[in-house]
Amino acid sequence: MPKTNTASNIADAGRNAGKFVKHVLPAAVKPVHSLWHEVLGFLFLVFAAIASWRVYRKAGELPPGQFAIMLLFIVVMAGYGVSSFRKARRISRS
After folding, report:
1. I want to staple 81 with a disulfide (CB 3.0 to 4.6 A). Which of 43, 45, 56, 65 is the partner?
2. Which among 78, 51, 79 has a CA at the least distance from the CA of 67?
3. For residue range 38-90, what is the model confidence (pLDDT) as tens digits?
4. What is the pTM of this model?
């Protein structure tokens, strides 16, 4: 019966695990990264839609300063939402 070297077997297993992680991890991270940007884009667009609805419902009642702040909020949230979706698409295509 041949002698087995457990230290050598453990080292081989570690090298194989490292190769596995180097090949599989990038393929798994890419869709998760893209999904993260899609979720953030959706949330930003929801915030912009809620604010737009509030401005639409109370447009005549809002003071000019608050109206301007709400419009700025809507533009920023919508811009971040669209840019997040564009970034997710760029990640998925690369």
Report:
1. 45
2. 51
3. 999 999 999 999 999 999 999 889 899 999 999 999 999 999 999 999 999 99
4. 0.72
Polymer length of the chain: 94
Show the 3-state SS of the chain. Answer: CCCCCHHHHHHHHHHHHHHHHHHHHHHHHHHHHHHHHHHHHHHHHHHHHHHHHHHHHCCCCCCHHHHHHHHHHHHHHHHHHHHHHHHHHHHHHC
C-beta neighbour count of 89 within 10 angstroms? 14
Q: What is the rounded distance in angstroms from the CA atom of residue 46 to the CA atom of residue 93?
A: 25
Distance CA 75, CA 6 (A): 63
CB 26 within 8 A of CB 56: no
> What residue spans define the domains of the chain?
31-93
Cα distance from N-terminal residue to C-terminal residue, the chain: 52
